[in-house]
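Figure 6 in text form: structure in, sequence out.
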């Protein structure tokens, strides 16, 4: 179909595709799925190694054999060039004119991407044979139009939800995934350290976001981050709340700054947090609160090892924080989370009290954190967080990043 050569970046070419698709198919066979219809871009990336530009992309995974990636003509060349040979790419017509020298390529085009194109390809494949097992689909996110089209061709009784199965598959990371997450976290740490040097009293708060973009882009020029997507969360002074809009606030000496989350490397998330005081000065209660959070954070980190119950780490962190008169109650929902290729950095499972007998195991990657936000009559007002990323190993854990033990680390 295509005459293009594969042009995967060398680091993407090292992706453990056979291991990752093998994990999906092993889980499918265990749960009786004959096919998966993956409509979320992060699931498509995990199954194929290609991150779609448009949300209309769909991946069909059989219990045995190669995955089929379905994209519009707008990105079909990229999908073919950036995926391993084991991924089949099929096209959905769009408004894009791509001349391949044939009369067929010069046919009149529509004005939009065929809204039923991907669903039609999926339905044609599934109806071309007698289904013996279930067809998995994430029923929580599939569009009504896509669902209505499929179920008009295939009885609804053949479909079952596969969302939890895909979350379970992604809990354990391959060595390549761990490498990507390590780089993402460490590059984010570099950005925060460079930003902190430039954040001074008298500066408009909106410049914090500009500094993030500047230093992230500078690292991208040097190292090729290769991702358009990032998440950056910040709070300034007493304004703990997260916002997509810049604040009309001028930073003052002693203000608390929280930098959180980060950009993505090869579509893998970073999520670390750094908290510091503007101008290298903070009152005693601010320092005491940070020290409380840091001590509890370290207790949690020191517990991170194979066989340790996830809920035990949650309670150890919470109980330590609640020893402080500044935070006598710390009803935080989680003390961290798994992380991977999801757009939302807080992936399943979270480090929470309701994890039952689930334990940390080698191959998992977690962010451990101790956030705090205070407002009104709280002992300290503002946003705090201490967060680093760790891979669970056979003997304990590997720290990707290292949070400062004082809030006065930035001068």
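Output sequence:
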């Amino acid at each position: 179909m295509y005459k293009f050569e594969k042009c995967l970046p060398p680091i993407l070419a090292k992706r453990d595709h056979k291991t990752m698709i093998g994990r999906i198919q092993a889980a499918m066979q265990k749960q009786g799925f004959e096919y998966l219809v993956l409509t979320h871009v992060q699931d498509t990336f995990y199954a194929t190694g290609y991150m779609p530009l448009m949300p209309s992309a769909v991946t069909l995974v059989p219990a045995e054999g190669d995955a089929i990636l379905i994209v519009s003509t707008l990105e079909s060349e990229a999908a073919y060039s950036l995926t391993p040979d084991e991924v089949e790419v099929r096209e959905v017509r769009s408004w894009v004119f791509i001349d391949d020298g044939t009369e067929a390529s010069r046919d009149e085009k529509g004005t939009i991407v065929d809204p039923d194109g991907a669903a039609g390809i999926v339905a044609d494949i599934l109806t071309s044979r007698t289904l013996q097992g279930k067809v998995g689909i994430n029923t929580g996110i599939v569009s009504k139009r896509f669902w209505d089209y499929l179920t008009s061709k295939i009885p609804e009784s053949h479909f079952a939800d596969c969302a939890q199965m895909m979350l379970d598959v992604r809990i354990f990371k391959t060595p390549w995934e761990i490498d990507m997450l390590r780089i993402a976290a460490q590059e984010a740490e570099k950005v925060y350290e460079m930003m902190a040097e430039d954040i001074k009293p008298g500066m408009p708060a909106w410049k914090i976001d500009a500094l993030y973009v500047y230093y992230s882009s500078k690292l991208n020029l040097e190292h090729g981050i290769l991702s358009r997507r990032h998440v950056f969360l910040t709070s300034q002074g007493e304004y703990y709340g997260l916002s997509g809009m810049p604040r009309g606030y001028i930073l003052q000496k002693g203000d608390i700054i929280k930098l959180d989350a980060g950009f993505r490397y090869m579509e893998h998330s970073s999520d670390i947090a750094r908290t510091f005081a503007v101008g290298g000065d903070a009152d005693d209660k601010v320092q005491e609160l940070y020290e409380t959070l840091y001590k509890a954070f370290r207790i949690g980190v020191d517990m991170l090892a194979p066989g340790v119950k996830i809920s035990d780490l949650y309670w150890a962190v919470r109980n330590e924080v609640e020893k402080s008169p500044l935070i006598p109650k710390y009803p935080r929902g989680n003390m961290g989370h798994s992380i991977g290729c999801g757009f939302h950095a807080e992936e399943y499972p979270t480090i929470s009290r309701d994890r039952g007998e689930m334990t940390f195991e080698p191959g998992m990657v977690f962010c451990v954190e101790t956030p705090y936000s205070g407002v009104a009559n709280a002992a300290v007002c503002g946003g705090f967080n201490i967060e680093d990323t760790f891979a669970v190993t056979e003997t304990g854990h590997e720290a990707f990043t290292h949070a400062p033990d004082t809030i006065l680390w930035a001068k």
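Caption detail: Residues 10-169 form a domain with the Creatine Amidinohydrolase; Chain A, domain 1 fold (CATH 3.40.350.10).
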